[in-house]
Amino acid sequence: MDAFFVSVEELYDPSLKGKPVVVGGRPNERGVVSAASYAARKFGVHSALPLRTAYKLCPQAIFVDGHPERYREYSHKVYEVLHAFSPLVEMASVDEAYLDMTGTERLYGPPLRAAHLLHDRMKAATQLNCSIGIAQSRLVAKISSDQAKPNGVLWVIPGQETAFLAPLDVRKVPGVGKVTERNLHAIGIRKVGDLAHLDEAFLEQRFGKWGMALAGKSRGLDAGGWFDTEIGEDEGPKSISHEHTFMEDTTDLALIESTLSRLCEMVGRRLREHKLSARTIQLKLRYSDFSTITRAHSVPRATQIDTELFEEIRELFRANWKAGAAVRLLGVHASGWSEGDEQLSLIGEERHERWKQTMAAADRMRDRFGESAISLAASMRGNFRERTHENPAGLPGKKGSKDSSV
DNA sequence: TCTGGGGTCCTAGGACCC
DNA sequence: TCTGGGGTCCTAGGACCC
Q1: What is the CATH number of the domain that holds A17?
Q2: pLDDT over 60 at A96, yes or no
Q3: Do both A289 and A334 map to the same domain?
Q4: According to the model, what pLDDT value does residue A370 have?
Q5: Is A248 annotated as catalytic?
Q6: What is the pLDDT at residue A201?
Q7: On chain C, which bases lie within 7 A of the protein's CB atoms?
Q8: What are the tens digits of pLDDT across the range A187-218?
Q9: Same-domain pairing of A186 and A301
Q10: What is d(CA A360, CA A145) in angstroms, rounded to the nearest whole number?
Q11: Catalytic residue among A96, A200, A243, A311, which?
């Protein structure tokens, strides 16, 4: 989808159309640009740019908060259109998908005709622009759809992959970021064509496993990496995490621990939604100087219970925090889903079961009354300013008389 | 420039086991 | 006694993607 977040925001507020729009937050906030309209991009604003920098480049831009629910809603509409068009659909992210069009020629005609048909249907059903790349591999299809933007269709005829890729900057290859680009530049490789001419053995020796994949990519092949599964496969998540950057760095232990507790609640809730239990719990800690550590612990008994997650996380925090050092970011990460449910001591088991039922009840309350309807007491002990700022309409406020706590 | 949040995959070292 | 080889699991960090 083209400028997806911006385009969705324009549907909710048509006055944004054609103007420089920045999605991601207020210009004085800590944060980065999620998406910029094409008008804003003319000023050099692009995603991942700090909001404060975007403001300096384009002070007249309209800054809007992101609305993940809206993007999910439209992502679903996009999926419906695609799925009606061809059954083999794989959403690669909220705004990107692969379609396997094998065997649809009788239905839709040759590739370009099929693509234009889909392009029109997408616009009619969602009012959103998209770009479509057609090729024999996912890699080339993705790169050609990037080249087709905005609002275009591009077909790379079979056999022309190498010729199509050769003049492009290596950075256009998915997986080649800042660092790999720098490393490639250092040995005189700037274009995908330069890469394709290189000896595979040299690439492997220089860049390891990744070098082999790179050699294939330069020739338009999917093999060796993220692209070698069948279209349409969907395994569940491998990890679930939440993190929070404070408006201002803090040394306030009450605020820190209530934030950790809240993050554990968010992770726990999502674990239960997915019916998963995690064995490995990881704390992420970023200080004022941006130095970042992660500390993990694997427990014998997998859990999906907020209080159990929080016990682990608090241990990890207390053992690893350079006491007094101002904290910029905290994160809670769960992974390592357990196969079976090992039994623990009877007392531990009873306690675990009671909490399980409590969590289920809490989740039902949140479904009915909203996310802030119920919370661990530990999540509410800290300073309220952070939370009120994030969710002005959410928590009742400092009086707390209406707060429900476990 | 003053740097989000939610993910995946890869590397590398060490513990531990047979 | 002066030191193997293979495998798995755990942990930490980093590149990269949207």
Answers
A1: 3.40.1170.60
A2: yes
A3: yes
A4: 81
A5: no
A6: 85
A7: 9-18
A8: 999 999 999 999 888 888 888 888 888 999 99
A9: no
A10: 44
A11: A96
Number of domains making up chain A: 3
Count other C-beta atoms under 10 Å from residue A324's C-beta: 7
Instruction: Please indicate, yes or no, if residue A132 is contained in any of the structural domains.
Output: no
pLDDT of A373 strictly over 70: yes
CA of A267 to C1' of B7 (A): 14
CA-CA-CA-CA torsion for A393, A397, A402, A404, nearest 10 degrees?
Answer: 90
Global pTM reads: 0.89
Label the pairing between strands A292-303 and A239-250: unpaired
Q: Nearest nucleotide (C1') to the CA of residue A270?
A: B6
Same domain, A244 and A353: yes
Q: What is the pLDDT of residue A371?
A: 79
Residues pairing with A335 in the sheet:
A239, A280
CB proximity list for A314: less than 8 A, separation 6 or greater:
A257, A260
Mark whether A209 and A293 lie in a shared domain: no
Classify residue A357: in a domain, yes or no: yes
Which residue range is the domain that position A53 belongs to? 4-66
Q: Is the CB of A239 under 7 A from strand B?
A: yes
For residue A208, say whether its CB is under 7 Å from any atom of strand B.
yes
CA distance readout (Å), A66 to A74, A176, A242:
14, 27, 17
Q: Which of A141-155, A192-206, A256-270, A303-317 shows the lowest mean pLDDT across its residues? A: A192-206
Domain presence at residue A221: yes
Higher-pLDDT residue of A154 and A348 is A154
Q: What is the distance between the alpha carbons of residues A144 and A132, in angstroms, rounded to a whole number?
A: 8
If asked whether residues A223 and A243 sit together in one domain, one would say: no
pLDDT in tens, A274-318: 999 999 999 999 999 999 999 999 999 999 999 999 999 999 999
DSSP letters for A358-390: HHHHHHHHHHHH-GGG-B-HHHHSS-SHHHHHH
